[in-house]
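re the bet — no i am not wrong, look at it urself. input seq straight from the record:
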Amino acid sequence: MKFSKEQEKAINHKDGPCLVLAVPGSGKTTVLLARINKLVKSGVNPSKILAMTFSKSQALDMQARYEKIYKDKSVKFSTIHSFSYGLVRSFSNNASKIELIEASKTYNKYHIVGQIFYKIKKRKISDEELDEFFRVSGYIKNTLMDYESYKKKYGQVFFNFEKVYMTYESFKKKNHLIDFDDMLLEALSILQNNKSALNFIQNKFDYIQIDEGQDTSFVQLKIISLIAGKKNNLFIVADDDQSIYGFRGASSELLLDFPKVYPDAKIYYMEDNFRSKENITSVANKLINNNKKRYKKSIRTTKDEGPKVDIKKHKNTSNQIDHVIKHVLEDIKNGESVAILYRNNISSINLINKLNQNIDFYIKDSKYAFYMHTIIKDLINIINFSKDTYDIDTFEKIYYKLNLYIKRDFVNQVKMMPAKQDVIENLKEVDGMNNFFLNNVYDLGYYMDKLSDLNFDKAIKYILFNMDYYEYLKEFSKAKAASMVSYDRIIDTLLNISEGVKSIVEFENKVNKLIKKQKSKSITNSPLTLSTIHGSKGLEFDNVYLIDLVENEFPSSYAKANDEDDKQLEEERRLFYVGLTRAKNKLSLHYPESLYLNKVDKSSFINEI
């Protein structure tokens, strides 16, 4: 196998700390495997080499590739999590009792947190709150931050978060349970407090090799530093420009500090890209050079110029998807591998809705949170109440979302009235009702009469166009300091998939069909991949289509509003960079002019390139 000069330098590095900065498509996995083989051939015992990477799938892939290329099964590849779990199993005082909650047949962590939340807050936890709970709890563990510090920096997650968090931690401790993040904390604690364990591990391994170094969190890097501390033979391959997991506690700044932590470290640059055409690497360089906190490097392509990067504006999301699918089908006919990439999972729904039933695809990071979103629940509740105005429980969920100024006290009074009476008629009889409130109650009756006769798709539009629910969302977004673009995206997607749908039952059936289609059509070896950009990292395709490139979604409004020295914005830019550099031959960027009824701006990252 022939290697470039840059690759040779990295492969031949043996002793002392080393950081290899590898641009996308520079053959880093090939180099990592070649270096291990070089160590083994130089007489290093394979059991003395600790080779770790970020994900289980990557570890398995590297294992298989190493065995295939070098016909050697003596080297083992693992993840930092699996290594940490081995440490806990070997050295924890309660090793025999400890159970991993994610692998437990008895306990379900989502169910446990849901129960704790209900006990403390007296209401059911929402899907968004549950996701946020585990995201934040994982983040504070990976950064070794306490919640008070998190709250000062990023704001409160939800009221009583600390109480739910501490109760959950106590429950796990009492039942000898640990989760994936606890694994890391337990491993770090063992290495810091058990000298014999630290000595054993340090003597066990002579060479530590880390892949995807930019994805390691603060706690993971501390574990790695302790293991390598005695012999100092730490070899990390990374690209700070591809550090995109800040929400998990990873940070490009940890890599930037590497020369300070290891003053005698060698730093090698692998800047040759063997993947992408020159037009693609050119725009990628132009984009990433806008980031200030990074190692200065550029992608140098080994390929020809290739077709120009295509940037397309579309009237709406529906037109955008029609255009993209048409071109994707042509690519597939030509035998090319294709990826349609997006910033957020919700973009996949319009795609799946429009893809012909005969087209297989592989979808990464598939989630169904959209179908459970509060906006959709609200709209369905409003329609349901219009069909049954005796249902006080449903009315209680929606009355304050229609800007009709109906008081909580009025609703409480209605709840005390006979259940067999119409809620709207009962409202007219409550104490404190005056002409102002009465007019609003009559408006409510008019809306519900009108709504009850409409098909589902028309009813959704009526609630949005004629009633004040959209105004409620505007106020809600202000209170949450959120961008309306994300709410417009939900509404826009709902309008697209509910077109021609007559009833709630028909809508629910359509949702089930979309989920079924998503599962049944997801074929691993399909030439078409649908993925978030996060999910596409490490992959490559002949042609890449980036869709829904809308300002305040990408970069997100959060990144722009809550920025600290452009830290969030730079990570968003790195994510865009990762998306661009997945393409080998053809790159195509797409954005709609509007979401729902509102004009939107194209991503500012498009302006940068």
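see?? The chain has a mean pLDDT of 92. told u. also The longest strand covers residues 583-592. so pay up
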